[in-house]
Amino acid sequence: EKAVNLKKDLAEMQEWMTQAEEEYLEKDFEYKSPEELENAVEEMKRAKEDVLQKEVRVKILKDNIKMLATKVPSSGQDLETELNVVLENYQLLCNRIRGKCHTLEEVWSCWIELLQYLDLETAWLNNLEERVQMTGNLPDKLDAVNDALESLESVLRHPADNRTQIRELGQTLIDGGILDDIISEKLEAFNARYEELSHLAVSRQITLEQQLQTMRETDHMLQVLQESLGDLDRQLTSYLTDRIDAFQMPQEAQ
Fold first, then answer.
1. At 40, which CATH number?
2. Could you say which residues form the signal peptide (predicted)?
């Protein structure tokens, strides 16, 4: 009777493993939304816990069959053969579920990381847009133009590492068919805004550089002219002081 019960337990255990494999490993999952992906991750975590909890039952079965084999070798030998098949299938099931759970957790981590990088770069784009707008109505002063140019250039020196991460993470998920529509839409919108703003910023940078160069040249010309007028003023003042007649002066002084 004990051998019959153990055989029944082995059959039930094998049936449970077959059902678990069909439910957790053979279903075709499509992750078209973050909610679907997150639910799949949580489901696989529960599946892993469920399978690992069966380890106690498997051990009890194994101990009981070993004990029976020592007492009733004829009955125990057949059960040990069945037990070995169950143990092998159980270990395989555990490994496959652990693997799938790990894969889904990695995929979810990639998605979260992608969102974080997109948030960082979006904040940078907002800052860049603000700096570009600030250069629109500048006072016609050299210091103001120079400060605006330096401010814009400091933002443009932003490293490209984050954009590289966005491209690689997005492509990895898209290649796996995971959230591909959502990610493609997000990347397309981000890249379009990045291209538009970066081109506008560089164009504005060139304009400010030209404006600054023109203002510096004008300032230099005014300074030279002012110095020349100062020299002429001093020279004319000396002529007036010495009461020199205009016709005795050089042509330019007249």
1. 1.20.58.60
2. none
